[in-house]
Amino acid sequence: MSAAPQIQPKFLPDRHDVGIVAVGFSGGQPKAGVDAAPMALIEAGLVQQLEEDLGLNVTFDGQVHSYSELLPADDPPHRNMKRPRFVSAVTQQVSDQVYQHAKEGRLVLTLGGDHSIGIGTVSGTARAIRERLGREIAVIWVDAHADLNTPETSESGNIHGMPVAFLTGLATEKQKDIFGWLEPHHLLSTKKLVYIGLRDIDKGEKVLLRQHGIKAFSMHDIDR
Ligand SMILES: NC(=[NH2+])NCCC[C@H](N)C(=O)O
């Protein structure tokens, strides 16, 4: 790794303080495999490199969380969502772990995992930043996918395609154990969201992007 950045970020008390959350979870979509990524990164020496090469102070509980204890006995689809209770319970835990770091002013690095985890990372950060700085967060979502499907627009029912809909309140659910735990302080404004790199958007997502005037730079824009 090269040298540590020298610029002190405006919204962090100390640029050296980093919190890591390792999430070995793949339940937001049907294929196993992405759950192995955090351990692979850690075994490759990520934490030492952050500490020794970049001189950062890393706070890490030393665990890759699989959250298997949160697996419900029964988790039938709800509004077309697959494994809704499990994904909800895991992302709620991730949200809290991220919040615990972010409220102390640490830059949070989450290692996943499938993209449903974004429900936890963004909501935990949004809550901490509202509390710590009295501001709304902004999100730059760099991805081929918008992950903006509501349960109703989704053609797959996979929750990894829905995180931004729940985070912006375009999708809501009353049931507490199915993302009903998301409160206003967890949410992100569509005005403070920008996409970079989109190349695979569903029909329903395209409608939502237009309806809400969400800023987006597709791969087509980048190639120009
Ligand atoms: N994070 C991802 N890999 N998302 C892929 C989503 C694919 C598709 N748009 C869906 O909703 O199922």
Automatic annotation (TrEMBL):
Lineage: superkingdom: Eukaryota
Cofactor, how bound (note): Binds 2 manganese ions per subunit.
Biological process terms in GO annotation: arginine metabolic process
UniProt GO cellular component terms: cytosol; nucleus
EC number: 3.5.3.1
InterPro entries in UniProt: Arginase (IPR014033), Ureohydrolase (IPR006035), Ureohydrolase_dom_sf (IPR023696)
PANTHER family hit by this protein: ARGINASE
Protein name: Arginase
